[in-house]
User: What shape does this take?
Amino acid sequence: MTALITTEADAFRAALPPEGALLGIDLGTKTLGLALTDPVRTVATPHEVYARGKFKSDSARLGDLAASREVAGIVIGLPFNMDGSSGSRVQATRAYARNLSEKLRLPILLWDERLSTVAAERTLIAADASRARRRDVIDKLAATLILQTATDRLRAAPLDADSAD
Assistant: This one.
């Protein structure tokens, strides 16, 4: 049985315990950029970037990280096209989330990541990072931006029908 996989922040929040870190993943075709929050889910920080391998070894590595950091849930960037449509990368990300959910049994939030890599690149350029340095850290910075925006939304008041008025 898989855990919850959703694009809805409120449903994800409801599936989480009161405390426990969140793991953010920027899922690239060749690398995984990772970020973590603190246990009370206030601040996301870059963790690492590593080259993707076989799913079995990647999921084992993520499982070890989740256990050692007491991760309560996972936020994976969902790479919609700029017009909001979904293409093959969105389908691949959803499949990855389903497979990861079966292995780790943690709730997963699929979070719109449009412009996260662009924002990460701009941040690194503003910090005068060399191209080589940008290449080495951009995926974990993108994961951090994805995770921080999701964390900020999770900390906000839940949406309800009455608040739309």
The longest strand covers residues 44-51. The two ends are 38 Å apart (CA to CA). The beta strands are 5-6, 21-27, 31-37, 44-51, 71-78, 108-112. The first helix runs from residue 9 to 15.
